[in-house]
Input
Amino acid sequence: MLIAMVVFALTSSADVAAASDDTADDEIEEVIVWGRATKKRGIARSATEGAVGFADFSTRPFQRVGELVEVVPGMIATQHSGEGKANQYFLRGMNLDHGTDFSSFFEGMPVNLRAHAHGQGYLDLNFLIPEVIRTVEYSKGPYFPNRGDFSTAGSSAITLYETIAPFVEYTAGQDNFHRFVSAGSREIDTATVLGAIEITRNDGPWQLPAGVEKHNAMLKYAVDSGAVHWAATLALYDNEWASTDQIPQRRVDSGEIDRFGFIDPTIGGRTSRYSATLAADGAHWTANAYLSRYSLNLFGNFTYFTEDPVNGDQHEQVDRRWIYGGHAARDLNLGDHDSVRLGIDARIDAIGTLDLFKTRARERLHAIRTDEVDWRNLGAYVDWRRDWSDQLRTHVGLRVDHYDYDVRARLAANSGDGRDEEWLPSLSVVYAATDALEVFANWGRGFHSNDVRGVTITTDPASGDPADSVALFVGQEGVDVGLRFEDDDGSNITLTWFWLASDSELLFVGDSGSTEPSDGSRRTGIDLAAFWQWRERLSADLSFSRVDSRFTGLDSAAVAIPNAHARVLNGGITYIGDSGFSAALRVRHFGDAPLVEDGSVRHGATTIINLGLSQTFGPWELGLEVINALDTEDDDIAYWFESRLPDEAGPVEDVHFHPVDPLTFRVSVKWSAR
Output
């Protein structure tokens, strides 16, 4: 299939380029569409929702594809364990782990994975090919009834182009980085077919070469049939890699390893996801269906020899599942002032293999737990908009999610089934103070689900001791008060104060197969997002977030939430010239964060500057990416926990960190059918 996609993309490029001179002439005329300039006046229900188009990130240098979510103002994506694993995400002072409170949808298909072998809500975006992404729509807060699980901090919806000028691009860089990407579209009768492929190899700056072998392929078929627009998408993704995990600071301080060294040379993983979606859009309704096959084998070792001084603490997490479901919505006009959207969505996760093994150098020693899980949910919502006047409107939403699950564990005591429901009301009030300024007030309830293995658990599978179960739903509540200013040129500024509370941060810990409870939390802060457009080809954007994050319900002063970054700043300037020259300068900063509850140990701030330059020569384009242009020695992430190295008598509490990539250059050459 991958070879067929390569042939399709290349022949499509050649055929379209040679089809007619008129077609080539049409594609020379470039139209720049800044997604951030999209008008939201009279549409948005919150100051913190928006859209980003391809022009906004087409010149943006990415260290990794997961950073695409950083187009969401205030969002940070880092990595601590290999380029095939889901990123670590941060938003609104929340350590989202690998996606617990941030949801993402690809062509209508949910990407987050429930009851995942490594972490609840696991959000792996490595299957994306940025060059064929048309739009990323985003929202923050639990105020959107079409979003349920994993969406309290925020959500994003990613859509692909249907037509694109054919191109072939090759990028090479330091540390054996090679990336080939090709895409193109063609018309077949009344339909349009888009194909894209990506092949990436990368060792990274690590002393242990990462050996990334990533393959992506996408095919999208779109056609208009009467009043209905149909689109079918196929996405194929495979990846294999070795990991350099976070390392103990004490080993670096002693000089035994450097910042890019390793402890366990045999950790890493391999994963795949094959997905198909079908969507239909009518004048007042939309529907979609999806099917996905997912697999993962992930080897990790965070504590080295703490639990097992002889064999070490390495483990393997295994996940094999089918995911299928769909969504439908209908818009109803109830008169001059009222409109309603009714929606329903369904999803089934049929997880045939959900295992945790004790391993040594990737050799399985014994099973800690092996499970099968069936998890079904049905959600329904109503979203009522009322225009009280030309200036005042309200949005009232109500969503209900019904969950039904069945856990079949090898240890029978941890098996079980059950069902539960969660009701999510929301209210938004919007006042248009002027033609350019709107004022928003939002309230809503949200939730994230816990892994159902943590709901049915009674016995710790590793120790045999009694284990506390967790609730299926973690209730959350949010409030936003914000302003949005938009001018006629497309520039806009939003400023929001928010409050977000979570009943509990109880999570199932995939690394141990048990649960780890924590207390409730409260976060308050401000979000600032600004986009300026000068003339047509120059734009600048800035997002800033300042958050106070605390545990609640504690008598002690130790209320700091580990890895809750108080400050996040992300911004840049983009220029796309009419002479074929383009440039982008990006700054991403996230402030220091406590690593323990009393704040006595902290993770320092990280600031990275990236630069992208390109110049076209007819159908050819030469590009240069500079990652970490100032060569800062900052950290992507840091943790505080106990670990034991082979020569140590016992466990030692220490900072364990993963550094950002050093100064890195990447050069690309691209041919396009212009």
Q: What stands out?
A: The CA atoms of residues 277 and 290 lie 4 Å apart.
